[in-house]
Amino acid sequence: MIWTRRNHADGILQLVAIALLSYLPTNALAAPRDTNEIRVALTSDIRSSLPGVNRVSFTDDVLIHVVEPLVAHRDDLTVAPLAAEHVEVSDDLTQYRFTLREGLRFHNGDLATAADVVYVWERILDPDTGFQCLPFFDGTTGAAVESVLAEDERTVLISLDAPSAVFLEQLAYVQCPIAVLHRDSWDADGNWVQPIGTGPYRFVEWKTGRYVLLQRFADYVPSDGPASGLVGHKVAHVEYLRFLVIPDVMATVAALVSGQIDVVPLLAPVNALELRRNRRVVAMDHEGLSRRTMLIQTDDPLLSDRRIRLAMAHALDLEQFADVASLGLARHNPSTIPRSDAMHTDVHDESWPYDPDLAKHLLADAGYDGEEIVLMTSRSEQALFDLAMIAEAMWAKVGLNVRVQVLDFGTLLTRYFAGEFQVVSFEFSPRLTAIMNMHTLIGDKQVSPPRWDDPRAHALLQQASATPDTAIRQARLDDIHRLMLAETPTINVYNAPIIDAVSIKLDGYRPWAGANPRLWNVRKGE
Amino acid sequence: MSTYFLKRLLMIVPTLLLVTVTVFVVMRLVPGDPVAMMLGDIDNPELVRQMREELRLDEPIPVQYVDWFRRVITLDFGESIVTGEPVFDTMLSRLGVTAQVVFISVALAAILAIVFGTLAAWRQNRASDLAITMLAVGSMSVPAFWVGIALIIVFGIKLQWLPTVGYVSPLDDLSESLQFMVLPVTALVVAETGALLRMVRSTTLDVLRMDYITAARARGLGERTVLFRHALPNTLIPTVTLVGFALGSLLGGAAVIETVFTLPGLGRLLVESVYARDYVMVQGVMIFVAAIYVIVNLLVDMLYPLLDPRVRLRA
User: Fold this and answer.
1) pLDDT at B28
2) Alpha carbon of A55: minimum distance to chain B alpha carbons (Å)
3) What pLDDT is attached to residue B315?
4) Total-model pTM
5) d(Cα B294, Cα B18) in Å, to the nearest integer?
6) Is the ipTM of this complex over 0.90?
């Protein structure tokens, strides 16, 4: 064949045609039908695979499948053994003895021992590790861990320097799990490699910006009892879990509808409502723990007047406010404690009655003369922006001169931590215990400028944290709620509903108050 | 030409120096603390202090700049504040993804623009010219992300022919990698072809009116020869310049398309790093992007004498 310019061009055209034809895939390529892999969308990448250090909520979503702390939360947010099979607490609440689950095995095949638990504790208590919840255990907030001892192969004794009724709850905190990890999770120089845990899935691969891949751990021995929260009988039915980083919501929804992913956790209500019309997808919702609130800076010259803060609360029709802001998916919760928590009693349903006349009267009484109040918000979370816009409109009706200031989330967060705000529409990430939720509200302004610094609240919280008596703790938490209603350092609106959208191919998936998607006990069909 | 090349290379140095100062200062003027962003609503002032100290964010800004700059001139861009990964390695791996999409897109857009732009000029004021011009205007009028979303809806959701999220490296699986590339490449081709095509068409029209074209026709040369041998080479210089701009800007700024199609490219890395206040990563990426832009344009300049022997590059 003579290679002329003409057949050169023809050849190129043929190559292009072949390339284009190879572009035309079958449906099988576009939407994996693999029943051995569940794909979960993450809106942002994890930052590290080390539990409790440099974490975001997506880190927790991945790691709950890989690592197990000694104790964890049930569906009703009470604490139960996980890596431990039994916990014995001394009468004076200073000694906690954990017996590890029989057959508890690391992903590399080694049996987990009490010495491994001690090894992890030594690392966690080292300030250089940067464990985010170290204040729970170094005496900064409550009792300090005095010693962690391996009594035998399966028994660990943790001693505290003072009684603590919340120690187990702090241990179970999903954001900072002190997991049972193999020492080979760190290299010889002490640098973190990747988690070798004891969970139903093992960590296989993290491709930065793309995905995290987990594989079923064949030797996992589940604990007894019904699956609940993060504890109980967990079985990995599907071989692989792939957590895909998809930052764009529209792309996420499109991928779910087209079958490229199977689970989208924590959808916004507006997206969930749209998906409810789709036959390939099920949107499930559950009452959540994230608290959406209007925080008021009680140190502000104008807002230090309790009457103005009260007027702001009475000017809001909070039931309607919550209904509109959540598109009907959540109810108003005036309490700092979410409804899913057993400590949320009827007392915590007491709220500020909607009374615009009383609000006007309080403002007049306080001598309010139209001074501008800046309400900070961000568009990064649409719900917070909506909250601000609705509040501004309701406040304007009683004569409050409120200006909404929209900031990017980084700026808002920095100003929040510095206490540089008058009012801010804010969301606290889930805290799984009543005491922890109260700590997001109450604190020393010298250390935490955004907190409510009231000696009466401090004393009540201290008593609630220290007492082993549940009834006394309940009474103190109820008192805090009443005091908060009277002082109004914040106006709690509602707890963000948890809405997970799931492919109809999944069987056994259930959202829960803790929000992290749980993929054990879930099967995937054709 | 070698002197010209060297001089242009040296001019990159003050450009990049200016970029380092500007980016460093601007990032620190933006409110928002990277440590606060990392900790979210976890209240741990001692950890905040410790992390700021470790990241040397507690030092005066000029000290931070000098320290960072000393490392950058040895190509040590530092580690990401957020993930702790080496910035240079991260940038290179992300550039690989972006380059894959951008080079294919710009090449296809250039080919389409040259073919149809020349055709439109040759068939000026006829139906084919009108149709091509309308399509070009349409391409220029719709943003790439809109095209991307439309492609996702049609080919991803309705027809389910192509994947819309994720990325597979061609080194891992070439066939699968191509499937993931089709939609983002198509979106960029649609967005980029319009401007290039308009440029080719108008330049070709100018060239076709020149005396030497009339002379060529008068010599009895066929229309195809006139068009491709005599007219086309003279239309290429402005087109190549525009292609250079497109390459430079897309290599550093295809963030929207990368976000819509979930491609882990350089543009998405930059946007995410800005939101996370990952100063070190943003500084590294900005210098990297500036260097790419300058080098691509330098290479385009170097092409001029090859395309048109009358052009001489002098220092």
Assistant:
1) 83
2) 7
3) 52
4) 0.82
5) 13
6) no
